[in-house]
Each structure stands twice: as C-alpha cells, then as structure tokens.
Amino acid sequence: MSESREEILKAIGLLLKSQSTMVISTSDPVDGPHATPLFYLTGNEFELYWFSSPSSVHSRNVANAPEASVAIYASTDQWQQIRGVQMRGTVQKVTQRTRRREISKAYCTRFDLGLVFRAVMIKSSLYIFRPCWVRYLDNTRRFGFKFETDLPVAQEQ
Predict the structure, then answer these.
(1) Model pTM greater than 0.85?
(2) C or N terminus of the chain, fewer CB within 10 Å?
C-alpha cells in the first residue's frame, strides 16, 4: 500500500512534534562544520524555533552563513524502529516582539522551564529554521523506507 505525499508529510509533522531535541549543523569557512543538539519547538510548515546565545558557535555561524541542516529522530536501539527527519534550510533571528513572547511562553510550557532558565532566555536570541528540503526515513514502514521532497519556502513571521 502506497501512502500519499500528504500522509507522509503528516507523519513527519507528528514525528517533529513528538521529539524535543534536534541536531543543527552549521559551517564556518575557517573552522568547518559544527553540530549542536538543541531543544526546539515546531511551527507551521516544519519550521523549528529555539533559543540560543548569540555568541555560541552555531549562532555565529548562521549569522555569517544562514544555511544549515537539521536531524531529528526517535531514539531507539532496534534498527527496525529507526525513524528520523533530515532537513536543509536557512536560519534567521526572530526579532518581532509579539512572536518572541508567543514562542517563549510555549517553549517554557513545553519544557517546564524554571525561573533560572527563563532568565537565561531573556539574554538569548530566538532563532527560526525554515526548511526547503526534507528527507524522512522510517524503518517501521519497511527497511530502507525513504521519502524526499522540496518544501515551499515559508515567509517570515
């Protein structure tokens, strides 16, 4: 039985919402590639939001070259259960105050963050990853199941 593109995109969205940590890969022409695990929230069209210090390596990298890749997967120790998403896209800081407040509130609620972390968030920047391409791997469907597609570029919120 072959699933439609819409059904697979829905499965991707459910996987993104069910996980909490992504690995973002950025690059610097001098230091090369850099990968960082981060908590994230999902947005529309698979956008991902996170807070980070503007002085962190990945934040400095995307300030100079906004292209990045992301990997998110459900942790497992059984190869038959491997499910994950790889995406390529661009990163921007979110500067709109109302959007930042909305994401901050949702972020604190989702991750049950205490007052100490909330104080750190105030000093952090909010970033958004907007994917333009996605690959979905799902061995629970069948060994080697893979779906790839380009995504429409989302507009700034």
Answers:
(1) yes
(2) N
Residue 84: CA count within 13 A, CB half-sphere? 16
Q: In whole angstroms, what is the distance from residue 57 CA to residue 121 CA?
A: 17
DSSP letter at 29 equals T
Cα–Cα distances (Å) from 7 to 2, 99, 147, in that order, read 10, 29, 11
Listed by start position, the domains of the chain span 5-150
The CA distance from 16 to 136, in Å, is 11
What CATH number does the domain located at 5-150 have?
Answer: 2.30.110.10
Specify the pLDDT at position 155: 54
The number of helix segments (H) and strand segments (E) in the chain equals 4, 8
